[in-house]
Task: structure prediction
Amino acid sequence: MATLTGKHALVTGGGSGIGAAIALKLAREGAAVTISGRRQQALEEQSGRHTNIDFVTADITNPNSVASMFESAHKMAGPVEIIIANAGIAKSASLAKTDLSLWNEMIGVNLTGTFLTLKEAAKHMSGANWGRMITIASTAGIKGSSYISAYSAAKHGVVGLTRSLAIEFAGKGITVNAVCPGFTETSIVETTIANIMEKTGLDEEAARSALTKSNPTGKIIQPEEVAAVVNWLVGPGSDAVTGQSISVCGGETW
Ligand SMILES: NC(=O)c1ccc[n+]([C@@H]2O[C@H](COP(=O)([O-])OP(=O)(O)OC[C@H]3O[C@@H](n4cnc5c(N)ncnc54)[C@H](OP(=O)(O)O)[C@@H]3O)[C@@H](O)[C@H]2O)c1
Result:
């Protein structure tokens, strides 16, 4: 049974990876889904996977672009009631090699981009008395690891932003939750495996196994597993769940 018929969801970074899986899941549940990102071709490909999916190009680091993204989404499918702030980038480096440019990039896209997205979403949701805000943070938003200090700081910021907005919007029918994936089978993991191979000389299987060790179940998470949790958080029966950071990581963090 379709549980999201009549709802409009905007998924940032919906042209690939976890965002694409979330968009498809919500569309299959009956929602009108707008996906966004910078690469038009990727967005066109993903929107072709379901008639309920449309797209708009946008850069979440630019406030004007974020405002236009919501305006275009509104014109295409009505007010946005569900925002999935998923767009993000991951780069790793030791502290010594983390220069200001890398730091600013990690904070700018992952934290400031999420802030700009949720700030604009709140304007569009005000007065509706129902809404769902989901941030896609990371297990790196809950625990630290070496070589990802900038990314991890940004994702911890996303978790803090999520918790604070949950309280701010608690009386307005809007829930705000963070979903925190562990290593998930997308281009981010492909790049991480390539980096491990390059820096350590390990072959692909050994590099992959270095990543799966962080997950007690010994697996890389699939994007559809993250999408299933998001789908539950935006669907019926989740009204009492807000301000949470829900790990999808086979027990890596809690
Ligand atoms: N894969 C993992 O292991 C993992 C684990 C934990 C958390 N996460 C988080 O999950 C989210 C999705 O990542 P993914 O793994 O699915 O990787 P992905 O396939 O690279 O997806 C990231 C998406 O973000 C979009 N994006 C990046 N910068 C943007 C910007 N400035 N403006 C608008 N869109 C932008 C990209 O689209 P364009 O390039 O077209 O702009 C892309 O579609 C990220 O927040 C990531 O930190 C991933």
